[in-house]
Amino acid sequence: MVDTQALAAALMTHYGLEVSSIVIMRTVYGVVTRGSEKYIWKFVRGGESVQRLLSLQPALDYLAQFEIDNAGPIATLHGERIAYLKDGTVGYLQPWLPGRHVNLGERQERLMAVATIAHMHRSFAQVKAAGVLPVELPTPGGQLPARLRAKQVALRRSFAVAKTQFPDLAEVEQQIFSAADSVADLFAQPYFLPEDGYKVLCHRDLAPHNMLWHDRKIALIDFDRAGLDDPFTDFMQIANHSLFSCTPESSHFADMVAVYTRIHPLSERRLNKLWQLLYFPDVLIRTLAEWVKNGCPDEKRDRLIAAVQSEQQRWAVLEQNDSDRVRSPRAIGNAGF
Description:
Low-confidence stretches: none
CATH topology of the largest domain: Aminoglycoside 3'-phosphotransferase, Chain: A, domain 2
Helix content: 40-55%
Number of strands: 10
Strand order of the largest sheet: 1-2-3-5-4
CATH class of the largest domain: Alpha Beta
Number of domains: 2
Oligomer: single chain
Order of helices and strands: HEEEHEEEHHHHEEEEHHHHH
Shape: globular
Radius of gyration: 22 Å
CATH superfamily of the largest domain: Aminoglycoside phosphotransferase (APH), C-terminal lobe
Mean pLDDT: 87
Largest sheet: 5 strands, antiparallel
């Protein structure tokens, strides 16, 4: 934690801002100037993070040209995107955007979130094809195939432990692993077609608190995990987080796919892969890992039951949507959850 007076002095030195107050938040600092302007100060830890931020900056600069609101680093008085404090810490200033966290349980906000990332993906695919952006960009945590495989491994580890504390999980074990393995294996296959391997700038951390709803638009914040990746990464995250917010109706995923593909068209082969990806039981994987990490507490078992129910609802809707397309992984049965 940095001294707020030292931070205020640094903001004057680097940005010419006369600070009125600084609010210490969970991971960032809120800054209010004498003129009532609002900003967010974020620390950057490690030389690799600084280099990644600088590599990412040209891509973030394009977002404004695409009319996608975002909170990227503001230039200092010397035109730099990061500032070094006297104690050696490094950080950057970004605008404090208006709005509240998006509610993915609301259809309009959910589809606007999908439309925003589809617009971003399509625009970056175009400028990247023109050679404007770098071909590679550091991508923390690995790209989509590697992340799916890592989640698959985490599922096997946590499920083995969880089943000993909650034997009823054995009733859905086969169906859970069938879906996880099918999707992970599909995306691990070598890319034979250029369309399968293309990457665009992805946010890669699209939790509701990183999307702000204001004036019927979505603004994106916190690009700490952004990088070049399969665009389905962002779509998958919005779809998974939406399951925490509502019970999906019959058109839940179909509407999301329709909005995305209307803005960012996909080949039939890519479209089939997107539908397959939606079967991946990410909600249950995350809940299992958290439950096991915390020692499988009995008072948190309801969350695990709710996660299984979410996957049952997800797959029931997907089976209905996808029955006329490709053969999909077998859905979780109704095992008394």
